[in-house]
Specification:
The protein has 6 helices and 7 strands; from the N terminus they run βααααββββββαα. The chain has 215 residues and is α+β, with helices and mostly antiparallel strands.
C-alpha cells in the first residue's frame, strides 16, 4: 500500500525544476570565476605567434617564450587565489540544488505487510512495524513568516525504530493536499503494529476523528 507522503505531482515537478535550476546556478557560480580570471589576467603585451614566427625559441627572452607558449594567458598553477575561492561557494549551492531535486522526485513511503519503507532523497529505509518501537510526535511548519498572516502548524508523525539494528524511519501523518493521511492508510499502519500499542490506538483515533472534534 502506498502511503500518501511527499508532494502532489504539480509541486513535485516544481520542486524538481527549482532544484535543477539551483544546481545549474551553483555550477555556473563555480566555473565563471575561472573564466573571468583568465580575462582579468590576460597579458595584452604578449606578442602573437605570428609576430615571433621564424625566430628560434631559444633566441626569445624567457618571459616572451613563456608568454607565447601559454597563449597570452597567465598560468593557473599558482594555487587558489581569491577569485577561485569565491567560486568554491558554488559547490554547496550545486549540492543543495541536486538534493532538492532528488527529494522532490524520490520522497515516498509504502507498506508491505507489516514492513514500512520510507524513501528519501538518497536512500530507502525499512522497518518492521510488528517488532519496532513506535512513538508518536510532531514537527512544526511555519507559514507566512514575518507577515500578519504568520501561523504555526504542528503536523503529527510516527517514528518507528528497529530494536535490533537501531534503524528508524519517520512517517509524517499528513496526506497529499489533506490535513492527515487517508483513513485507510492510518488504519493499515495501526494494524501493522503490535496490538495494544499506544501509537496504534492514536492512529485509530485519528482515523475515527481526523478533525479532533469532540462528540
Amino acid at each position: 500500500m502506498r502511503i500518501s507522503i511527499g508532494a502532489p505531482p504539480a509541486a513535485k515537478a516544481f520542486g524538481t525544476l527549482f532544484g535543477l535550476v539551483f544546481a545549474a546556478a551553483g555550477v555556473a557560480f563555480a566555473l565563471l570565476p575561472l573564466v573571468f580570471e583568465g580575462f582579468w589576467h590576460r597579458d595584452d603585451s604578449c606578442p602573437s605567434a605570428d609576430e615571433v614566427s621564424g625566430i628560434p625559441p631559444e633566441l626569445l627572452p624567457p618571459e616572451v617564450r613563456d608568454c607565447v607558449s601559454g597563449g597570452g594567458w597567465l598560468s593557473f598553477d599558482d594555487g587558489f587565489g581569491p577569485i577561485r575561492l569565491i567560486g568554491l561557494v558554488g559547490i554547496p549551492v550545486f549540492l543543495l540544488g541536486l538534493y532538492i531535486a532528488l527529494k522532490s522526485v524520490r520522497t515516498a513511503a509504502w507498506l508491505d505487510g507489516t514492513v514500512v519503507s520510507v524513501r528519501s532523497a538518497l536512500r530507502t529505509k525499512k522497518v518492521d512495524l510488528a517488532t519496532a518501537e513506535v512513538s508518536a510526535g510532531s514537527y512544526t511548519l511555519r507559514h507566512h513568516v514575518g507577515t500578519p498572516r504568520a501561523s504555526v502548524e504542528h503536523v503529527p508523525q510516527i517514528i518507528a525504530r528497529d530494536p535490533d539494528s537501531g534503524r528508524s524511519v519517520t512517517i509524517p501523518l499528513r496526506g497529499i493536499g489533506t490535513p492527515l493521511l487517508p483513513e485507510k492508510e492510518l488504519r493499515a499502519l495501526a494494524d501493522a503494529m503490535r496490538p495494544g500499542t499506544t501509537a496504534a490506538a492514536q492512529l485509530r483515533a485519528l482515523a475515527d476523528n481526523p478533525l479532533g472534534l469532540s462528540s
